[in-house]
Amino acid sequence: MSAKRILIVDDEAKMRRILELSLKSMGNTVVEASDGMEALSIVEKQPIDLVLTDLRMPRMDGIALLAALREQGVDVPVIVMTAYGTIDTAVAAMKLGAIDYIIRPFEMETVEMAVTRALAMQAAQRENRFLREEVSRGWGEFVGTSAAMQSLYELIRQVAPTRSNAFIVGDTGTGKELVARAIHEASGRTGLFVPINCAAIPAELLESELFGHVKGAFTGAVRDRVGKCELASGGTVFLDEITEMPAHLQVKLLRVLQEGCIERLGSNGTIPVDLRVVSATNRDLQQAVESGALRRDLYFRLNVVRIDVPRLRDRHGDIALLANHFLHKHALELGRATPRLMSHVLQRLESYEWPGNVRELENIMERAVVLCRSGEITLAHLPAELSSESPGRSSSSSALADDPAIDGPLDLKARVEGLECRLIKAALERSANNKAAAARLLGISERTLWYKLKMYKVGS
User: Fold this and answer.
1) Distance (Å, rounded) from C-alpha 279 to C-alpha 238?
2) Residues 184-194: tens digit of each pLDDT
3) Whole-model pTM over 0.70
4) Which ranges carry the Response regulatory domain (predicted)?
């Protein structure tokens, strides 16, 4: 844990000195105040990570200090110390926001443990707040802030309010249906969003699924049935894997799009429909047309606006955000605390090619949550293809490979600063220059990152 600035508030100079020595030995910076009034003045002037305060002090006691901090909206964890460890005192302090209390006299180990626990809790809260803020920079149900995703969000915003059909192209697992739903939800259309996977329904049943049928149309048709296209009238029908639709049904779909009406199987009558069609495929569109898997005239009807969904390996800056999002999602489903993703595990995730895209990442994070019992996700919780070290893929070995030859100058300070500067530049590039995300990748605070950027004159 990096050094923190801790404010000790106590009217006894000797006690402040004892606490100062102990907390400094833990690597922290210590600021002192003799009462609540002085403490408030300090908090107003400089950032404080933790307040350790006595309860009984002149001018302003610990309870009054707690109340003042909360009234001013100061979000800092507070531990109270008291020789009057009654239930009433503890309850009053906790109600005002204290996260722990210590009864005097105490052993210094007790203080150190309380401080360590409080700082860890604060770090977790800040991380959760960071995640919520980052997710809010996505759009709708999407998670991602990369340039590729920002372009996708903007294209959806432009397409959604129109009546134009859209064709979504992307690898398996990239979230094509999520894009289709986003288009529908932002369209203002009042009808249903009706998804149909053309590859999952047997060809002999697909026509009835799409257009419906009347009683007696075929053996087993014991009653009339409304088709998905009719259900989607006034809304959006999503035809996933449309290149798997049989050719004769593509002809019927083309007629529906041209004439604005459907004909149920076994019926001679037509039913008007108001359809907006969003289609998707994971195949190469031009190749599908040339091979005859998709009729050329239907292709031109459907492909008014083409939307390409980026692969996960093309949006590496989103991997940390997505991984933590899925960890939180599945931990919540299992009723567990969200485990922490260790930095070396994140590096492994970011070096992987992700052939299964976002869907594969979610499955791996769900697996990790199920297997994790320690509160920290390690390489042991990942599947074999990610947990074993691939030759030449180690993050540490790749970093060292870029260093000057070992028989060069052995100036340790210069070597360390050079490597640190390169890592900072790599983190900024990987996070699309998002400082908060870069700091997270590096395992440092955003404040520390800004300081190092200034020191190394990066981005200036």
Assistant:
1) 6
2) 999 989 899 99
3) no
4) 5-119
